[in-house]
Amino acid sequence: MLKELLEKYEKKEDLLLEILLECQVVKSDHFISKDDIKEIADYLSIPESKVCSVLSFYTFFSDKPRGKYIIQVCKDIPCYISSDVNVLNIIEKELGIRVNETTSNKQFTLEYTSCLGCCEAGPVMRINDKIYTHLTADKIKAILSEYRVYM
């Protein structure tokens, strides 16, 4: 699968970020493995350390298997102080997992992330590519229920 993905891209180091993003999206476990890192580095003729440095810099990349739905809760101050709602505690209670854990059915992974760019609409969380703003306890529970329907 990765070989086919790589063939879509020119062998240019500048495309590393785009390759990593697509690789992570198309894989069912949404992470970049050590084998992936080696194959991408070989394809682009760059050191594996270069790939690893990009992976570790951006919070949206993972080197561990994750669930189908990746829930990222903003940990920056504007989201933290904009409401009495403790988004993280509500999600942890609803799903029975803690930060950096995945539910046993591999449906949800819970993570912290840096700013999602919606400080005026906090608290904020992202599930895969969709951002949810102005979160309340009831809204969080309703959102999670919607995703559970699709399981």
From TrEMBL:
InterPro entries: NADP_DH_HndA-like, NuoE-like, NuoE_dom, NuoE_N, Thioredoxin-like_sf. [2Fe-2S] cluster binds at residues 74, 79, 115, 119. The keyword Secreted does not apply. It holds the Pfam family 2Fe-2S_thioredx. It comes from Mariniplasma anaerobium. Its cofactor is [2Fe-2S] cluster. One of its GO terms (molecular function) is oxidoreductase activity. Signal peptide: none annotated. Keywords: 2Fe-2S, Iron, Iron-sulfur, Metal-binding. Belongs to the complex I 24 kDa subunit family. PANTHER family: BIFURCATING [FEFE] HYDROGENASE GAMMA SUBUNIT, NADH-QUINONE OXIDOREDUCTASE, E SUBUNIT. Binds 1 [2Fe-2S] cluster. This is NADH-quinone oxidoreductase subunit E. It comes from the Bacteria.
